[in-house]
Every structure is written in C-alpha cells, then in structure tokens.
Amino acid sequence: MSFQGMWVVAFESRRAAEIAELVRKQGGQPFVAPAMREAPIANDDAAFAFAERLFAGEFDTVILLTGAGTRRLNRLLESRYPKGAFADALRRVTVVARGPKPVAALREMGLTPAIVAPEPNTWRELVAATAGRIGRRIAVQEYGRSNPELLAALAGRGAEVTPVRVYRYDLPENVEPLREAARRLAAGEFQAALFTTAVQIEHLVRVAAEQGIEAAMLTGLRQCLIGSIGPTTTEALEEFGIHPNLEPSHPKMGLLVMETAARAGQ
Fold first, then answer.
1. What is the pLDDT of residue 243?
2. Which among 169, 186, 204 is the end of a domain?
3. Are residues 218 and 150 in the same domain?
4. Over the stretch 151-197, which tens digit does the pLDDT of each residue have?
5. Rounded Cα–Cα distance for residues 260 and 170 (Å)
6. Number of domains observed in the structure of the chain
7. pTM for this prediction
8. Where are the alpha helices (DSSP H) in 79-210?
9. Average pLDDT over residues 70-78
10. Cα–Cα–Cα angle for 216, 200, 178, nearest 5°?
C-alpha cells in the first residue's frame, strides 16, 4: 500500500527533509511547510530562579517534558553555573521524563530518569505514572506553551508546582511555505495531510486567517486523509473541527507516514 501519487502536505519543522523523503518512499508527492520554530523567551529570570531553588534543595521532583527543553535548560544554566551543576542537582531529586526524547537528553547528561511516562506520552500518562511516586514540591520543564491540565492535575494532589518555561513556539522565520500550504489546501490541491505536533494546526489557521482564507482552508483540510501523531495533536485538530483519520500504532514520525500511506492505499 502507498500514497499512489497523492499530494501530501506536512508541517514538520526540525525534520522537514526527513518527512519529505519518507513520503516519497511511500509513493507520495510531498509538500513540507514548516509551521513553527522554538524561540527563546524574552527573559530567563524564571529559569535561573528555578536553578537557585533546585541547588538549594527546594524541589523533590523535576518533570522534563521535552528533549529540546531539557537541552536548552542545561545550556542556559551552564552560561551562569559550573558545567555539570544542573546534572548533579538532578541526581538529588526524582526525575520524571514524559517520553523518549527527554530520556535521550538526560542520557547525554549521564542521567537516567526514575520514571518515564509510557506511550503515547501525553500528560495523562505522566500523571498516571507518577501517582504516589513523587514528592510534593515539583518543578515542571514546560515546552513552547504551558500545559494547564498537567499543572492542575499535579496541584490537585496537593503538590506545590513550579512551571519552568525555557522557549516558546513562534511562526517559522520563513512563513511563505506555510502560507502557500494554506492557499493550496483552500484550493483543494492536497489529498493527505500529516501533523506531528499540536501547534502546527494553530499556526496554519493563523496564516490562513491573515490571508482571508481560513474557512476555505479548513474545508480543504477536512477533505484530506489526515494523520495525527498522537492524542495531544488530535485534540488540537478537533478544536478546529478537524477529525483525523488515524493515529499511528506508536507516536513515531516514520510510522505516521507509513500507516497513513497504508490507509490511503485502502
């Protein structure tokens, strides 16, 4: 089974070339429009305040949600504190990783998390995995946007939760491919669409609205075969009335492409 020549739009940024090649190998014609970039926040004071509290032993648990955020936080703290100070402090607390990406970042620092949330690695799995296993004073490394459901669930257990945000999601520096994707969706030129993170649909709708084609773009998207990497992305799509045809058997980009191609073949 394959895409059989379908035009496939994808919104991956960091691995744009890779997803394009995966689509080609599955018989599709890819159009990749990077939909986001990870931009530094304007003020790092909150991260440094977290570090001072961590070094002083004021946290029982540190939850790391993304690999990129873990690495960025480590680099930021190394700009002010001795190399390895962050890793040494993490060894004194319970470290929780949301999934394989923060696990890989921790491994680079010589660390192994005490708890890893299972697939599909959403905040729900993280909350379930930590039940009764972590302390009351919790720091949460956030990604490009906050996760109020996770923070509320932890606080609901009586925890004192400190969010630590080290980057934010923004539009890519070159927005034209995303604008073109919106125009081509509005014109009905794509037969399949692949979403690999929740913020992609928000930014796609944003650039479509700026061009006055939001409704037409969403109509064109609803006519596509849509693959979503996992539940969090699916929830974001459904907020705009977009109901994905499938999530892959595991939340991996390669499986997303392959299993969407298989569905296309059916």
1. 98
2. 169
3. no
4. 999 999 999 999 999 888 999 999 999 999 999 999 999 999 999 99
5. 27
6. 2
7. 0.90
8. 85-90, 100-108, 123-130, 148-155, 176-186, 199-210
9. 95
10. 60
Residue 1 has pLDDT above 80, yes or no: no
Where a domain ends, among 117, 148, 169?
169
Instruction: Provide the residue range defining the domain that includes 153.
Output: 40-169
- pLDDT category, 144, cuts 50, 70, 90? confident
Give the bridge partners for 246, in sequence order.
227
Residues 50 and 138 in one domain: yes
Do 44 and 165 lie in one domain? The reply is: yes
Give 3's contacts (C-beta < 8 A, 6+ positions apart). Answer: 23, 26, 27, 28, 29, 191, 192, 260, 261, 264, 265
* 3-state helix, strand and coil shares in percent for the chain, rounded to the nearest 5: 45, 20, 40
13: its two tokens? 């940024």
1 domain-assigned:
no
Does 143 score more than 90 pLDDT?
no
CATH number at residue 251: 3.40.50.10090
